[in-house]
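quick q for whoever's on today - can somebody do inverse folding on this one?? i tried earlier but teh output was garbage lol. tokens:
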């Protein structure tokens, strides 16, 4: 549980360090300086010196540590006169102790801290002051011996760290320029784009993304505030896929007002996952495309007049059936006469009304389809002969009542024939048996039925 709670915090620290490398360098240098100064205080305490001298030395080390902490907080060096006071304080400590060794570590770290965090012109006074301080200490106190190599090493390392800082500044400036260019390009893109950091927090969302997702400028944009579900209806957490390998994902965005949009999301990591880089989400609203595809599918497998499944859809159900079934064919009697008498509009209304009644009469998992003209079919999964005859009777009963169409009352009868999968080898034979039974006028439960 602790590791789960610390992970977001650690991710924020890493993300912050990537955005400001120099601040991270300052923090690392400050922590190292504090540790070295504490070790030096302990070393001073082990020396055979008067308590007052040891206390003064520890106070001086605490003083210079405090100065570096002030520099870290202010993000700029203390004034030059403070540097001079610092060097004089350390000189007094070295002379009082008669030993420079406990101070060499802090001196190196303080100069390196300044070199890593300040321009060269503000690094040189402190470095020169400490070099002069060490030389002066050897002159004032004969017990102090500073080797020339130590002074050379201090100067060389300081220059190296200063050059490294300049290089980091240059790289960071290039990174900022590239980031600004990327932001400008992404914001001008006509399609929605969202950029997140390694822990999934939104770093940038262009105006197109704001329009699609309902984000207003200046609002707290968070992926966690959005509701996405997958094609299977399960919730999808986009923040969880931030930083993953490039992939495409289709989800449905559910808005608070009840509206929704089908969105195709391309996730593109901005770097290797191990590096903790962020992720670019390219969004495409495919609602219109999906609606068009659904309309095409519906038109291909449904009858335009009645809205019932058509012959192609019925055959899909027949071929996919894994249990016994029956098929009932329903044909209207004298439909041509109704068309000729009342007109084709009434005839179309009659077909739609018959389809509605047949669908209401069919129970359970039955599939009612219009095969064409005035012929309908009813697929009854799991039905045996007795159940099929009951269904046929129910279908014929739908014609006992007249149809009110465009202010006219129309009576029509139907003929029913059925076929059983148990009596046939394949769907073709079932349909052929039902068609033959219907045309033979085989009586079932109604005197007009076959």
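ok took a stab at it. sequence:
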């Amino acid at each position: 549980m602790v590791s789960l709670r610390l992970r977001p915090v650690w991710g924020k620290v890493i993300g912050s360090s990537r955005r400001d490398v120099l601040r991270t360098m300052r923090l690392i240098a400050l922590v190292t300086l504090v540790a070295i100064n504490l070790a030096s205080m302990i070393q001073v305490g082990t020396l055979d010196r008067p308590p007052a001298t040891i206390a003064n030395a520890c106070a001086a080390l605490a003083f210079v540590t405090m100065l570096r902490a002030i520099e870290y907080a202010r993000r700029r060096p203390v004034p030059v006169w403070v540097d001079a006071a610092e060097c004089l304080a350390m000189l007094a400590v070295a002379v009082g102790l008669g030993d420079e060794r406990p101070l060499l570590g802090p001196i190196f770290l303080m100069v390196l801290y300044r070199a890593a965090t300040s321009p060269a012109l503000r690094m040189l006074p402190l470095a020169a002051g400490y070099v002069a301080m060490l030389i002066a200490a050897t002159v004032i106190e004969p017990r102090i011996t500073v080797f020339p190599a130590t002074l050379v090493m201090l100067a060389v390392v300081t220059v190296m760290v200063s050059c490294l800082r300049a290089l980091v500044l240059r790289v960071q400036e290039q990174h900022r320029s590239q980031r600004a260019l990327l932001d400008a390009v992404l914001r001008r893109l006509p399609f929605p784009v969202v950029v997140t950091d390694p822990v999934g927090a939104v770093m940038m969302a262009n105006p197109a993304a704001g329009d699609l997702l309902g984000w207003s400028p200046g609002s707290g944009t968070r992926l966690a505030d959005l509701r996405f579900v997958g094609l299977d209806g399960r919730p999808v957490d986009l923040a969880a896929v931030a930083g993953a390998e490039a992939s495409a994902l289709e989800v449905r965005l559910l808005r608070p007002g009840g509206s929704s949009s089908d969105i195709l999301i391309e996730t593109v990591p901005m770097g290797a996952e191990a590096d903790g880089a962020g992720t670019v989400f390219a969004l495409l609203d495919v609602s219109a495309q999906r609606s068009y595809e659904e309309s095409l599918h519906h038109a291909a497998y449904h009858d335009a007049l009645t809205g019932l499944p058509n012959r192609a859809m019925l055959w899909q159900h027949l071929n996919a059936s894994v249990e016994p079934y029956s098929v009932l064919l329903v044909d209207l009697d004298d439909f041509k006469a109704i068309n000729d008498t009342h007109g084709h509009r009434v005839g179309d209304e009659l077909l739609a009304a018959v389809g509605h009644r047949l669908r209401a009469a069919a129970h359970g998992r039955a599939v009612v389809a219009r095969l064409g003209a005035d012929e309908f079919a009813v697929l009854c999964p799991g039905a045996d002969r007795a159940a099929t005859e009951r269904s046929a009777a129910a279908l014929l009963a739908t014609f006992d009542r007249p149809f009110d169409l465009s202010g006219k009352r129309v009576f029509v009868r139907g003929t029913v024939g059925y076929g059983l999968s148990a009596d046939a080898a394949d769907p073709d034979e079932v349909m052929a048996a039902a068609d033959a039974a219907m045309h033979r006028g085989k009586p079932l439960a109604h005197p007009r039925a076959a």
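fwiw The two ends are 73 Å apart (CA to CA). also Confidence is low (pLDDT under 50) at residues 1-18, 442-450. so keep that in mind when u check it
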